[in-house]
């Protein structure tokens, strides 16, 4: 079953850090290695990596961000922001009370260049996301990008030249899957999980569909259906996964084997919000059935007045 990680590990991190005996404030610094979608004002978008370090002063409720290692045209870009107030939210999710930290409008200068100000920064440090630990032969197990298992969800501009958005290298999307097979009634389930794992080089991704059940008549769900090396299509401010004639792999007798009887004629995944946390996933298989998830998200949904947000 899917695992809900929530309770804002960033908060736990702060409460567990040691305090200087000469200072009353509780402070901590934590680093996260992330991927980033860089969208130049001119030219094609692409994914690259970078390291973000966060300073938190829990007592004063202030934070600052330092970034290093973002490479653009073989040049290293870095910045440190000013210290700003952050907000700590406690929210009701579908699996209990959770929390996250939000930082907005921190400013700075990239490479100390006054023509490259950090602007429109919006950031969440959160552990309100879905995760699974199911072991699939032939598939790398997911790992956290930091000793603190939180995710950084951030967007900002570098002057007028670049827009940057963090991208999760490994994320598990949940939602309502609806499938239609010719001659049968539509089938609906919330038990399937879609894992998008971006591969080295950041040009392709693997999609692993856990607990795959496409029709009521299926006696048992498949442990996993694996679609390897799907091409990433880039656009400004977003990206998508689009592929045709993909032979899926399934786990059998302790290994992954091809299952060409159920070739995915088409597979597409595109993002539905600015933060790149929500997605629409659709596919057509063996000319027989179609599936779609219009509310896929790797962030656990927040309950507001009895409804999901």
Feature tags:
309 residues; mainly beta; 12-stranded antiparallel beta sheet; 8-stranded antiparallel barrel; 1 helix; 3% helix; disordered N terminus
What this model shows, in words?
The chain has 309 residues and is an all-beta fold. It has one helix and 26 strands. Strands 13, 14, 15, 16, 17, 18, 19, 20, 21, 22, 23 and 24 form a twelve-stranded antiparallel sheet that branches. A hairpin with a 2-residue loop joins strand 20 (249-252) and strand 21. The two termini are 22 Å apart.
Characterize the largest beta sheet: strand count, sense, and whether it forms a barrel: 12 strands, antiparallel
What is the N-to-C order of secondary-structure elements (H for helix, E for strand)? EHEEEEEEEEEEEEEEEEEEEEEEEEE
Q: Approximately how much helix is present in the residues?
A: under 10%
Count of strand segments: 26
Short description:
The protein has one helix at residues 9-16, and strands at residues 3-5, 27-40, 46-57, 62-72, 75-80, 84-93, 96-104, 108-109, 117-126, 129-131, 151-158, 162-167, 170-174, 177-181, 187-189, 193-198, 204-212, 222-235, 238-246, 249-252, 255-258, 264-271, 278-285, 289-297, 303-304, 307-308. By secondary structure, the chain is an all-beta fold.
């Amino acid at each position: 079953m899917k695992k809900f990680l929530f309770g804002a590990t960033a908060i736990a991190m702060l409460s567990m850090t040691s305090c200087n005996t000469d200072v009353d404030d509780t402070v901590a610094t934590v680093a996260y290695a992330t991927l980033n979608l860089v969208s130049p004002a001119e030219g094609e978008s692409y994914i690259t990596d970078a390291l973000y370090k966060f300073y938190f002063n829990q007592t004063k409720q202030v934070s600052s961000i330092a970034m290093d290692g973002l490479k653009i045209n073989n040049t290293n870009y870095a910045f440190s922001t000013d210290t700003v107030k952050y907000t700590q939210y406690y929210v009701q999710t579908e699996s209990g009370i959770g929390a996250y930290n939000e930082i907005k409008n921190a400013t700075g200068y990239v490479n100390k260049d006054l023509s490259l100000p950090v602007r429109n920064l919006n950031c969440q440090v959160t552990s309100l996301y879905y995760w699974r630990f199911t072991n699939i032969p032939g598939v790398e197990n997911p790992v956290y990008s930091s000793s603190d298992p939180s995710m950084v969800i951030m967007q900002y501009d570098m002057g007028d030249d670049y827009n940057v958005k963090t991208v999760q290298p490994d994320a598990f999307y949940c939602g309502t899957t609806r499938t239609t097979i010719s001659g049968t009634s539509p089938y609906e389930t919330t038990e399937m999980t879609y894992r998008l794992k971006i591969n080295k080089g950041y040009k392709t991704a693997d999609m692993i569909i856990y607990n795959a059940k496409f029709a009521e008549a299926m006696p048992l769900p498949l442990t996993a259906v694996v679609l390897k090396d799907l091409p990433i299509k880039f656009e400004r401010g977003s990206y998508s996964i689009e592929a045709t004639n993909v032979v899926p792999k399934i786990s059998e007798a302790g290994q992954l084997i091809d299952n060409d009887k159920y070739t995915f004629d088409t597979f597409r995944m595109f993002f539905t919000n600015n933060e790149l946390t929500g997605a629409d996933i659709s596919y057509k298989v063996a000319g027989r059935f179609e599936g779609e998830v219009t509310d896929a998200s790797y962030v656990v949904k927040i309950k507001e007045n009895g409804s999901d947000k």
